[in-house]
Amino acid sequence: MTAPGALADHLLGLELALQTREVRNSEEKLRELLAPEFREFGRSGLAYAFDDIVTHLVAETGPDNTSISDFSATMLSDTIALATYRGTRVNDDGSRLFTNRSSIWRLDPDGKWRMVFHQGTATA
Prior knowledge:
Helix content: 25-40%
Protein backbone atom coordinates (compact mmCIF):
# COMPACT_ATOMS: atom_id res chain seq x y z
CA MET A 1 0.00 0.00 0.00
CA THR A 2 1.35 3.42 -0.94
CA ALA A 3 2.28 5.55 2.05
CA PRO A 4 0.01 8.54 2.74
CA GLY A 5 1.26 11.73 1.10
CA ALA A 6 2.29 13.40 4.35
CA LEU A 7 4.34 10.38 5.42
CA ALA A 8 5.95 10.05 1.98
CA ASP A 9 6.90 13.73 2.16
CA HIS A 10 8.32 13.24 5.65
CA LEU A 11 10.41 10.22 4.61
CA LEU A 12 11.66 12.10 1.55
CA GLY A 13 12.70 14.91 3.89
CA LEU A 14 14.62 12.44 6.06
CA GLU A 15 16.34 10.93 3.01
CA LEU A 16 17.28 14.42 1.80
CA ALA A 17 18.61 15.30 5.25
CA LEU A 18 20.86 12.24 5.14
CA GLN A 19 22.34 13.59 1.90
CA THR A 20 23.53 16.84 3.52
CA ARG A 21 27.00 17.42 4.91
CA GLU A 22 25.43 18.93 8.06
CA VAL A 23 23.78 15.62 8.97
CA ARG A 24 26.44 13.30 7.56
CA ASN A 25 29.17 14.97 9.63
CA SER A 26 27.15 14.88 12.88
CA GLU A 27 27.22 11.69 14.92
CA GLU A 28 24.35 13.07 17.02
CA LYS A 29 22.14 13.70 13.98
CA LEU A 30 23.00 10.34 12.45
CA ARG A 31 22.02 8.61 15.70
CA GLU A 32 18.64 10.39 15.47
CA LEU A 33 17.99 9.07 11.96
CA LEU A 34 19.62 5.64 11.93
CA ALA A 35 18.50 2.74 14.12
CA PRO A 36 21.23 1.13 16.28
CA GLU A 37 20.87 -2.10 14.27
CA PHE A 38 21.19 -0.24 10.95
CA ARG A 39 22.76 -2.15 8.04
CA GLU A 40 23.70 -1.00 4.53
CA PHE A 41 24.72 -2.68 1.31
CA GLY A 42 26.47 0.17 -0.48
CA ARG A 43 26.70 0.98 -4.16
CA SER A 44 30.27 -0.33 -4.01
CA GLY A 45 29.07 -3.74 -2.85
CA LEU A 46 30.50 -3.23 0.63
CA ALA A 47 28.36 -3.96 3.69
CA TYR A 48 28.23 -1.56 6.62
CA ALA A 49 26.92 -1.83 10.18
CA PHE A 50 25.80 1.15 12.27
CA ASP A 51 29.21 1.99 13.79
CA ASP A 52 30.95 1.54 10.41
CA ILE A 53 28.65 3.93 8.58
CA VAL A 54 28.67 6.56 11.34
CA THR A 55 32.48 6.54 11.43
CA HIS A 56 32.64 6.73 7.63
CA LEU A 57 30.08 9.53 7.25
CA VAL A 58 31.43 11.72 10.06
CA ALA A 59 34.86 11.66 8.40
CA GLU A 60 33.51 12.46 4.91
CA THR A 61 34.46 15.72 3.25
CA GLY A 62 33.38 17.46 0.07
CA PRO A 63 30.30 19.21 -1.24
CA ASP A 64 26.68 18.12 -1.10
CA ASN A 65 26.52 16.89 -4.69
CA THR A 66 23.66 14.39 -4.69
CA SER A 67 19.99 14.54 -5.58
CA ILE A 68 16.93 12.31 -5.35
CA SER A 69 14.34 11.65 -8.07
CA ASP A 70 11.49 9.18 -8.62
CA PHE A 71 10.87 8.87 -4.88
CA SER A 72 8.11 6.59 -3.63
CA ALA A 73 7.16 5.16 -0.25
CA THR A 74 5.24 1.96 0.39
CA MET A 75 3.89 0.78 3.73
CA LEU A 76 5.03 -2.74 4.64
CA SER A 77 3.15 -2.61 7.96
CA ASP A 78 1.72 0.08 10.22
CA THR A 79 5.22 0.96 11.45
CA ILE A 80 7.51 -0.09 8.56
CA ALA A 81 7.91 1.77 5.26
CA LEU A 82 9.98 1.06 2.17
CA ALA A 83 11.37 4.10 0.38
CA THR A 84 12.77 3.77 -3.14
CA TYR A 85 14.36 6.37 -5.38
CA ARG A 86 17.00 7.14 -7.96
CA GLY A 87 20.06 8.89 -6.61
CA THR A 88 22.33 11.05 -8.74
CA ARG A 89 25.80 12.21 -7.75
CA VAL A 90 27.64 14.83 -9.77
CA ASN A 91 31.38 14.17 -9.85
CA ASP A 92 34.03 16.90 -9.87
CA ASP A 93 34.43 16.52 -13.64
CA GLY A 94 30.68 17.04 -14.20
CA SER A 95 29.91 13.39 -14.95
CA ARG A 96 26.95 11.81 -13.21
CA LEU A 97 26.75 8.59 -11.21
CA PHE A 98 23.29 6.98 -10.95
CA THR A 99 22.16 4.60 -8.22
CA ASN A 100 18.87 2.86 -7.48
CA ARG A 101 18.36 3.17 -3.75
CA SER A 102 16.02 1.62 -1.20
CA SER A 103 15.59 2.24 2.50
CA ILE A 104 13.53 0.55 5.16
CA TRP A 105 12.23 3.00 7.76
CA ARG A 106 10.69 2.05 11.13
CA LEU A 107 8.43 4.14 13.33
CA ASP A 108 9.93 3.75 16.81
CA PRO A 109 8.01 4.00 20.11
CA ASP A 110 9.30 7.57 20.60
CA GLY A 111 7.35 8.58 17.47
CA LYS A 112 10.45 9.07 15.27
CA TRP A 113 11.14 7.32 11.98
CA ARG A 114 14.58 5.68 11.82
CA MET A 115 16.28 3.93 8.95
CA VAL A 116 17.07 0.28 9.66
CA PHE A 117 18.36 -0.76 6.24
CA HIS A 118 19.64 0.88 3.07
CA GLN A 119 20.86 -0.44 -0.26
CA GLY A 120 22.39 1.25 -3.27
CA THR A 121 22.67 -0.50 -6.63
CA ALA A 122 24.67 1.02 -9.49
CA THR A 123 22.65 1.75 -12.63
CA ALA A 124 23.17 3.43 -15.99
